[in-house]
Amino acid sequence: MSTDPEKSNTQAVVASINDSNDHKDSITDSLPSYKFFQSAKGELSNYDSTDIVLRTKINLINDALDEIGFTWYHFKLYCLNGMGYAVDSELTFIQSSVAQYVRYQFNQTYPADSHAIYAGLLVGAIFWGFGADLIGRKIAFNTSLLLSAIFAILTGAMGNFATYCLFVAFSAAASGGNLVLDTTVFLEFLPSKYQWLVTLMASWWGVGQTIAVLTTWLFFSHDEYICSGGLGDCPSGENMGWRYVWFVNGGFVLIVAILRLTIIKLEETPKFLVCNQRDEEAVLCLQKIANKYNRSCSLTVEQLQECGQITGNENFLSNPTFMSTIKSIKKHIKVLFSNKLMALSTSLLFSKWTLLGISYPLYSNFLPIYLATRGANTSADSTAGVYRDSVISNASSIGGGLIGGAILYLVPVLGRKGVMIIGGLISMALFFGYTAVRTRSQNVALSSSVYVAINIYYSCLYAYTPEVMPSSARATGNAISVACMRGMACIVPAIAYFSDTSSSIPVWICGACVGLISICSIFLPFEPSKQRVA
């Protein structure tokens, strides 16, 4: 590998810092300058002020990934991690799609099942996300979907509303880390020039929700699978449709879980290994990929060790106690606010995800209720027709992720922030326009447009969040971001229950929230489309 002056200078700084009593001050002083409203320049790793040695090692790992390039291994990761994305949205849309008939059967009016799924997703994001920075990404990748599939299948077999809600929560908790981990794992193996693929991967989110509403439509289009009565007048034998939906989708998740275990043998990400003082394993991981696909990888253990010993993170597995767990989690959270720039970036992202927790669930979870009150001209005259229209709208959402990724590839000057602003503002306009819907064709066309536009925004936000998080705390930061969204989503069912969901107010709230978070993108300090991730 050729000598890089910047690396040599950095290593010199490392040596001087090791002899300095003002470690943190020296690191902070070495941060590149930043002007408000302009994206910070240079490697994103340079803005993690917790450990300059770790900075240097991460840059070497990035050099090795760029040297290896894109391989068949990365393509398999794209597909299998994308399927994890799909499962996350699939379970949410299953619950909302079958909720009416589940509540009819168990004579329930309060949407406790909606609380259950978002509570499960919240717990899953925190558990799997925090755990990924402690014990690694590999365990969660291999087990989360398998557990989710088992719980999803059992959900369809429940005999009362309490156990139904419990297993909805269990299944959601098992899969709730996918949105956190799938982007993290994929990103930490990607060469820098292919980072835009993380945005494109969000198209799988649309695939998941399409599968959910498609299976619901297939079963609910047959009268023998759904009851004709109302609350308390739906015996199980005449209302099997919702159970079959859970069984079929649980089976799909099980297939994906098996594919993850058989098609690809996931290696622990080299960045996680380096962050946890496992340099030899990091180099071995990269060498294995390079050798398998006949690529070159000149990184050696000696090069990493020459950088010195990292001080900002420890190998948790060397002392896995309760107190060390708490200590490590606190340290990871502290990394997210290690300097003013990181604190600004992290705070803005947490705020954006929190507002998303209000807007998206209000729109997606309660849209059927709103549409049902708009009169015969806006909805089909049969249950099958209503779900058929829903399939069209949800299938359109796949285009959002594809368009978001395509814009980044074809018009790179816009960057992540530019695409988020465009997608968010278009979504806001379409949300507001939704209040004027008067016909069924308008309903299908506008709802399809909304799903496309909002997924352009989401695709970039889902990718941007892990991209700007430091390697040592990437899963933790990603988990807290997603938890902010799901924490707010937990209270949305109560808001909808005690308010008038037949009015246009939820739609206006959704539009206002999306508009606000799109404008907030202007103030984000980093633009990872022009920088290598930490």
How are the SSEs ordered, and which strands pair?
Elements: H1 5-18, H2 23-29, H3 52-68, H4 72-106, H5 112-135, H6 138-155, H7 161-175, H8 178-187, H9 196-200, H10 203-220, H11 241-262, H12 270-275, H13 279-292, H14 301-306, H15 322-335, H16 340-372, H17 383-396, H18 398-410, H19 415-434, H20 440-467, H21 474-498, H22 505-520
Subcellular location: Membrane
Keywords: Membrane, Transmembrane, Transmembrane helix, Transport
Main location: membrane
Number of separate domains: 1
CATH superfamily: MFS general substrate transporter like domains
Distance between the termini: 20 Å
Order of helix and strand elements from N to C terminus: HHHHHHHHHHHHHHHHHHHHHH
* Low-confidence runs of at least 5 consecutive residues: 1-30
The CATH topology turns out to be Growth Hormone, Chain: A
CATH architecture: Up-down Bundle
Strand content: under 5%
Radius of gyration: 24 Å
DSSP helix fraction? over 70%
Number of helices: 22
Global outline: globular
The overall average pLDDT, rounded, is 83
> Which CATH top level class fits?
Mainly Alpha
Say how many strands there are.
Answer: 0
The chain-level structural class is: mainly alpha
Major sheet summary line: none
Q: What report would you give on this structure?
A:
It is a single chain. By secondary structure, this protein is an all-alpha fold. It has one domain: Growth Hormone, Chain: A (Up-down Bundle). It has 22 helices and no strands. Helix 4 runs antiparallel to helix 7, helix 6 runs antiparallel to helix 7 and helix 8 packs antiparallel against helix 21. The longest helix is centred in the N-terminal third of the chain and has 35 residues.
